[in-house]
Design a protein that fits this description.
This protein is of the alpha+beta class and about 90 residues long. It has one domain. It has three helices and five strands, in the order βααββαββ. The strands form two sheets. The chain has a three-stranded antiparallel beta sheet. The longest helix is centred in the middle third of the chain and has 12 residues. It is elongated. The protein starts with 10 loop residues before the first strand and ends in a 14-residue tail after the last strand.
Length: about 90
Amino acid sequence: MSDGPPIAPLAYQRKEAAAALGVSVDTFDRHIRPHLRCVYVGDTRLWPVSELERWLAQAAAIPVVCVPHTKRPRTVDAAGGMAQGASTP
């Protein structure tokens, strides 16, 4: 090991990837991991930081609005209305 500055990882294992996104491993597995490409190194799977950043930017670009009296966000279409198939309570 050198005495220089710490080197930022280029990829994370599963628990680290979840922690980097600020979610639980279960949430990562259910909602995020299916949308990510990974790298296999032997039996180890790694998720590149650039892939996590790509997913985050893409997910942030989808506007959502919270409808009163519900915790579930609804997707908004380009015109600012409720997306096709979305309903209000």
